[in-house]
Design a protein that fits this description.
- The protein is of the alpha+beta class.
- It has one domain: Jelly Rolls.
- Helix content is 23%, strand content 32%.
- The protein has a six-stranded antiparallel sheet with strand order 1-2-3-10-5-8, covered by helices on one side.
- Strand 2 and strand 3 form a beta hairpin.
- The longest helix is centred in the first third of the chain and has 16 residues.
Amino acid sequence: MGVRSSDLHKFFKIAYHQIIMTITPMMDVLLTVEKNLPRLLEDEAGWNTVDVNYHPPRVERVWCYWEGHRINLHRIHPCERDEPYVHPHPWPSAMHVLSGSYEMIRGFGQGIEDPIILGSTILGADSYYSMEHRDEWHSVRPLEKAAYSLMVNGTPWDREMPIEQSASDLSPLTPEQKREILQFFREFYSGSRPPRL
């Protein structure tokens, strides 16, 4: 009896998620965070906010510390093709794109000189990826509408950054912005949400 292509697609999608989500330490942390997120989202006062707008794309961030990691809830706004900030991260991280899509450029390089660009990809809703080498760089550019993503950070590296931006130089979000973002994540991670394959 033949195998339907839809069954093969479902099998490989499940296999892909199982491999990609258990192969790295930060991806394991991200999965653990996702299991605990519905409970953490109940405590609205426990979440901080910052409007990351010093370079496109603008990122509205709601964040908290948990179990030695920082959890970041992001709403990332579209920008022009030549505007995204290509940057390394000061810590290992793992991400889950929840809604929307974005173009991501990836690069590699030491220090703060322009990195070697390795290529680009389009990440759609329910994409997972991690950045766990201190010399990885990337940029993201949401397509058509704002993208929502979950990011988890690990212990910071002692790494020089191209732009040393202090959080104290940035403004917090308005209470309404914070409520909107928290509500999106509550609905996404609610028990009524269709299960991922």
